[in-house]
Inverse folding.
């Protein structure tokens, strides 16, 4: 798990690029817990999202989970190839498995996210 | 504390709305809530992302009302089943991962059925458990999940409840559940098929507990739906280390909220989302 990532308690990760764009994905912990992914619904480019609100959904064999925006802003890019190859989420969750890119309204939103150590502590305390 | 809502029969959208209300209430109370309910008419609930078009292609279910669940999984024909919804805060140990909750609820149902001499297992059936119980029953099935079927009871996922039966591998699925995992709470829908629905034929007809125990001597008659639900709840409460309390549900405080949410479940936009 890369050190430059921040995490939401709802298991989305954020990588901040120098350009001010923030790449968002789903943590390996969450992907593993969901198991057997079968469908994913992503938002349209241009959609505005608010931190903590659902921006997409992912279905595994038995569960539908919402994807929550870790920061507010505009979705400027979507990994449109992802729904067609969901195994990428398991193989490379912090790379090719990225989900959306968001142009943040307020970069201070990142301050409320967890760093890697705090996130690992959070998931380490949860039963598997 | 486990809290139970016993609800009267309602149509599909009202039941889905009541389940959403249940989930919101569980999150507000930070407590585990379950709801048992019936359907005012035979109804098919589709999984959250099943294609509506796929339902149109199953001739045997033509004319039966449809509703789309917020949870995942396959289609269920409700009418001769025990339907429940459980809402569990993610802070609760049972809310931590999908499998923990399936196993907790389904495992308690295995024990409840066993009280009446009905042998059921969590799928995939463990070889050791099988040999202890009845080595002659069926043969082991592959542990790979199968989410391809239109109907829930044609699919297999870890933790599904099965009995010895004529389905592939020697086991027939009798109980399945599916979840909607929200930010702070998990809503799990589930169905125990008590008996096959007499009004259905072909692909839409699945065998239930009563059909499968014909060949299996049981120690005492299986209780009717309410009795079985109550026995299951007692088991669940015991495994939580406590008791349970009962409340009247959508007939009272939540009626307006449920009516508002039910309107959303009736919208074409929701039904045709996929």
């Amino acid at each position: 798990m890369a050190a430059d990532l921040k995490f939401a308690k709802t298991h989305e990760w954020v990588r901040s690029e120098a350009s001010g764009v923030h790449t968002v994905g789903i943590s390996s912990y969450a992907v593993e817990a969901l198991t057997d992914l079968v469908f994913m619904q992503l938002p349209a480019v241009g959609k505005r999202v608010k931190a903590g609100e659902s921006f997409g959904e992912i279905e595994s064999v038995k569960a539908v989970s919402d994807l929550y925006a870790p920061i507010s802003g505009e979705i400027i890019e979507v990994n449109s190839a992802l729904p067609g190859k969901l195994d990428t989420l398991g193989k490379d969750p912090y790379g090719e498995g990225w989900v959306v890119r968001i142009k943040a309204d307020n970069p201070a939103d990142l301050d409320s996210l967890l760093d890697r150590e705090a996130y690992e502590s959070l998931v380490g305390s949860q039963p598997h | 504390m486990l809290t139970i809502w016993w609800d009267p029969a309602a149509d599909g959208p009202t039941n889905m709305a009541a389940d959403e209300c249940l989930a919101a209430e569980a999150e507000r109370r930070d407590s585990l809530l379950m709801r048992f309910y019936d359907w005012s008419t035979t109804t098919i609930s589709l999984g959250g992302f099943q294609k509506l078009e796929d339902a149109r292609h199953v001739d045997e279910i033509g004319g039966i009302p449809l509703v789309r669940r917020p949870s995942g999984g396959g289609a269920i024909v409700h009418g001769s089943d025990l339907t429940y919804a459980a809402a569990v805060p993610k802070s609760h140990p049972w809310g931590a991962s999908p499998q923990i909750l399936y196993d907790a609820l389904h495992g308690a149902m295995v024990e409840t059925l066993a009280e009446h001499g009905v042998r059921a297992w969590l799928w995939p059936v463990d070889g050791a458990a099988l040999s202890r119980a009845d080595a002659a029953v069926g043969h082991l099935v592959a542990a790979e999940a199968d989410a391809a079927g239109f109907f829930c009871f044609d699919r297999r996922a870890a933790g599904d409840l099965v009995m010895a039966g004529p389905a592939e591998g020697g086991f027939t699925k009798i109980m399945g559940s599916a979840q909607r995992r929200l930010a702070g709470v998990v809503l799990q829908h589930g169905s125990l098929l008590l008996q096959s629905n007499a009004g259905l034929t072909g692909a839409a007809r699945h065998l239930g507990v009563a059909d499968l125990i014909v060949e299996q001597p049981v120690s005492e008659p299986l209780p009717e739906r309410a009795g079985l639900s109550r026995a299951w709840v007692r088991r669940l409460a015991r495994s939580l280390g406590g008791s349970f309390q009962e409340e009247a549900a959508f007939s009272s405080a939540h009626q307006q909220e449920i009516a508002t949410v039910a309107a959303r479940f009736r919208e074409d936009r929701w039904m045709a989302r996929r």
In short: Residues 76 and 114 of chain A are 23 Å apart (CA to CA). Chain A has a mean pLDDT of 91. The first strand of chain A starts at residue 5 and ends at 7. Chain A touches chain B at residues 10, 33-36, 38-39, 41, 52, 57, 59-66, 68, 126-128 (CB under 8 Å).
